[in-house]
């Protein structure tokens, strides 16, 4: 069965960086894009970006450009999202999600990780 | 990129039908048919309910349907049930290989 398992909660100081992992299983890793989505406390969903695990290509929302880096390790079917220059308003739950539409994705996110809470506080 | 516009809240009684709208600009939706809808219960990860405007993933009830007219996409839930009470989000491809979510709609089943 398809599973996306994310790394555990993080507490970071303003200005620091955080790296969240998303380990996938149950399907061919390189066949499906992975998206990252953020949800601030009590707020809605915010699309951050995607990575193509096949070739490592990425794209991100303008709000995160220059601060977010998405990478993958095909040997362990895992993608990573690193966010730098953390601010208090970066506090929230970060989700990875698989895009079921092949080959180029279509924002149809059918399997989600359990979410990783990132808290930014001095 | 601004969020797509959704009503903050909608409500309906069990058995009724409700529709949640998702409005963007012509440049948001363009000629793409890549609109998805997600259901999120408190404390849970979102669940895909509709993709490519009107397609239902396997396992999603046929009480859920999607459509699009011009710059507005819609999610209709028929035969409302208590378990449908949740937050609903639309999401669309908006060009330049980017996507955006709507602000979310809280559905209350009276």
DSSP summary, beta strand count of chain A: 11
Could you tell me the strand content of chain B as a percent range? 35-45%
Beta-strand percentage of chain A? over 45%
Largest sheet of chain A: 7 strands, mixed
Q: State Rg of chain B.
A: 13 Å
The arrangement of helices and strands of chain A along the chain is EEEEEEEEEEE
| Helical residue percent band of chain B | under 10%
Distance between the termini of chain A: 40 Å
Task: Give a written overview of the molecule.
The complex is a heterodimer of chains A (about 120) and B (about 110). The termini of chain A are far apart. The mean pLDDT of chain A is about 95. Chain A is globular, with a radius of gyration of 14 Å. Chain A contains no helices and eleven strands. In chain A, a hairpin with a 6-residue loop joins β5 (about 45-50) and β6. Chain A has strands spanning about 5, 10, 20-25, 35-40, 45-50, 60, 70-75, 80-85, 90-100, 110, 115-120. Chain A has about 120 residues and is an all-beta fold. Helices cover about 0% and strands about 50% of the residues of chain A. In chain A, the strands form two sheets. In chain A, strands 2, 4, 5, 6, 9, 10 and 11 form a seven-stranded mixed β-sheet that branches. Chain B is mostly beta strands and about 110 residues long. Chain B has one helix and nine strands. Chain B has one helix spanning about 25-30, and strands at about 10, 20-25, 35-40, 45-50, 65-70, 70-75, 85-95, 100, 105-110. The longest helix of chain B has 4 residues, at about 25-30. The model of chain B has no long low-confidence stretch (mean pLDDT about 95).
Q: Briefly, what is this?
A:
The complex is a heterodimer of chains A (122) and B (110). Chain A is mostly beta strands. Chain A has strands at residues 3-6, 10-12, 18-25, 34-39, 45-51, 58-60, 68-73, 78-83, 92-99, 109-112, 116-120.
């Amino acid at each position: 069965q398809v599973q996306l398992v994310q790394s555990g909660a993080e507490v970071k100081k303003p200005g620091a960086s955080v790296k969240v992992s998303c380990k996938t299983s149950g399907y061919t890793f390189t066949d499906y894009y992975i998206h990252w989505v953020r949800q601030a406390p009590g707020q809605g969903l915010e699309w951050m970006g995607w990575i193509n695990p096949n070739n490592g290509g990425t794209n991100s929302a303008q709000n995160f450009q220059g601060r977010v880096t998405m990478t993958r390790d095909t040997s362990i079917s895992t993608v990573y999202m690193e966010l730098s220059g953390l601010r208090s308003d970066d506090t929230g739950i970060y989700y990875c999600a698989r895009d079921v539409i092949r080959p180029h994705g279509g924002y149809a996110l059918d399997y989600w990780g359990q979410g990783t809470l990132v808290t930014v506080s001095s | 990129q601004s969020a797509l516009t959704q009503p903050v809240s909608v409500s309906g009684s069990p058995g009724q039908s409700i529709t949640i709208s998702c409005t963007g600009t012509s440049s948001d939706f363009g000629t793409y048919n890549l609109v998805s809808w997600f259901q999120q219960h408190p404390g849970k990860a979102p669940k895909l309910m509709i993709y490519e405007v009107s397609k239902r993933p396997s396992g999603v009830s046929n009480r859920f349907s999607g459509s699009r007219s011009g710059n507005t996409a819609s999610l209709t839930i028929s035969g409302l049930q208590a378990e449908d009470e949740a937050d609903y989000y639309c999401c669309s491809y908006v060009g330049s290989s980017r996507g955006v979510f709507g602000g979310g709609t809280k559905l209350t089943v009276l």
